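Example 3.
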Amino acid sequence: MSAAGPGGTVVDMIEARELTKRYGATTAVDGLTFTVRPGRVTGFLGPNGAGKSTTLRMVLGLHAPTAGTVTVGGRRFAERPRGLRHVGALLDASDVHGGRTARAQLAALARSNRIPLARVDAVLEEVGLAGAARRRIGGFSLGMRQRLGIAGALLGDPPVLLFDEPLNGLDPEGVRWVRGLFRRLAAEGRTVFVSSHLMSEMEHTADALVVVGRGRLIAEESLAAFAARGARPSVAVGTPSPGVLTPLLLAAGAEVVAEEGRLTVTGLSAARIGELAAEHRVVLDRLSPRRASLEEAFMELTAESADYTAGGAR
Amino acid sequence: MTAAVASVREPRARFRDLVASEWLKLWSLRSTGWALLFGALAVATFNVGTAWDHYRYWYAYDEAARVAFTADGRGLGDAFTGNAATVLVLWCAAMGAVAVVGEYGSGGIRTAFAAVPARGALVSARALVLAVVHAGFGAVVAGGSFWVSQAVLSLRGAGVSWGQPGAVRLVVASALLAPVCALAGMALGVLLRRGAAAVVGAVVVLLVVPMVLGEERWATAVAAHTTPFRAWHRLASEGAAGPYPWTTGGAWLVYGAWAVGAVLVTVVAVRRRDQ
């Protein structure tokens, strides 16, 4: 295996190439190509029904792609006889039998992969479930099940970790803990791939993003690049004489939207607007550039691809 | 950023770890022990109940019938009755189905296959555990039924010993009916993936089909002889009735074919289909 530049080796990368999955007439995943690299947290973002879970199942070999390939460390995951030391995955926290205790659930998983039993107690300790180890999972809250699922993913100390909507059901303390855990796993050089349908969840967690909508790739870039290219930056301008300023701005090539005595200007920097106002002796009582939020960037990019928009045609 | 994760070091994958894992999974469910205990009592009750009935209403038979019953060793028939076999088939098929559909229902099957991408090996290990547990279950139920029912009949001097022709065959055939039906139930569970559908499927395939197929026509007789329930009937009786007789060897072969076929169906189904 050759080195793949800074941040890790090809051993730990997830590589999807023209990945496609169709169920009858429905195309769930449509020609997805992306690479998830080690040493960072990569967010896998998209509205509900965008094909995120289907993609993760194909990464894990649970579903066979209709076309294209996806490999982990250069190999299809399904070719490996045992998985826990290669990829740790939390697909759905409810994917467990409620009749077992947390410890029994993890002990059976560990045994199948020849992982020593001591590791079970270590991961239960790590996720804060040591006290509940001998309780039945059926009595667990969703947050506790998420922690148990994360414990299962950590069991094999794998270089690649997949989490499908891991923040669901966690309380604020739990969310902070999971974010810290993801950051630490990435800092240790692991590949961390986390799906979510909420941009706000990724804003403080991910370094890079893979954004999908309706099974297609919308963006694959760093968090900063994604924020910058999403909604265009605008400037809020307040003036007692909008009738004078607006034609000047339009002449300078800006787009102006007037509402409630305020102008929202796109296409010109705040500095340039200030200059124009000064040249023509127009009084400004407000001049503030607005940074587009990640949420806005995400909404704008995925709006066209959202499958189930409130009030929209079905 | 430091690359703390070097290349993965992994011990060689062994089938016996999967078997141990499946063994842990099965016995970590409290319901397993209860289901086996309840099933054993239900099946045994049908056998011991029949023996008790013969004991209790012994006075209702005339002298000739009592002598014939004892001389012919008909007490053996109480060691494992057709009703008990029917209950055994149902119970074991349902337990075999639950061993997989429970996981399909909860999604636990994805957790299992993500941990062990060698799906065929995983379900083979589960089939082995299921077969061993149910063989033990069948041995206890059939052996226990023989012992208790004959003890009851011996109070009338009508019990038979292990030396009775066909006694060992009846007990072994009844014991092995359990793993054969558990494996068949598991295969149906993997194919249908839903508990209710799998149980209905098992009732149809394992009980209704053998009951409706008659012995009088060659085609239906041969079809009937391919079912495990009718194979049990053949092994439980001395000689074959009807115009199209078959050997006990053929009946054992049917048992084996169902066990092997069920495992093959299970392995092929989980390997080929999306999970």
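The interface with chain A takes residues 1-5, 7-11, 13-14, 17-18, 20-22, 24-25, 28-31, 102-103, 106-108, 110-118, 121-122, 274-275 of chain B (CB under 8 Å). The two ends of chain B are 37 Å apart (CA to CA).
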